[in-house]
């Protein structure tokens, strides 16, 4: 019985650990260009138009990286995340804000 409890504890620790390499790979391969017209969908969804094509689009963010900074974004701003980079930028009328993906479990990702 004691072995089962120890095994369950170890398993729960392994499952709860973040796989930083996978998350970095996910975000590095993500691309999004969005003129924000609605950020009321909460931290998981920003909707608007692609500023380059004019088509309606959304930047779904299931791991909530963009949403961590939604208080820095307003309707009319442009969110740009280029494929191959681990940062995104928010272009405002008079400034550009850059948000790095940053650190995960003590390692800096760039």
UniProtKB/TrEMBL annotation:
- So which domain of life are we looking at? Bacteria
Name under which the protein is recorded? Lipoprotein
Which species?
Answer: Flavobacterium rivuli WB 3.3-2 = DSM 21788
Taxonomy, top ranks, is: Bacteria, Pseudomonadati, Bacteroidota, Flavobacteriia, Flavobacteriales
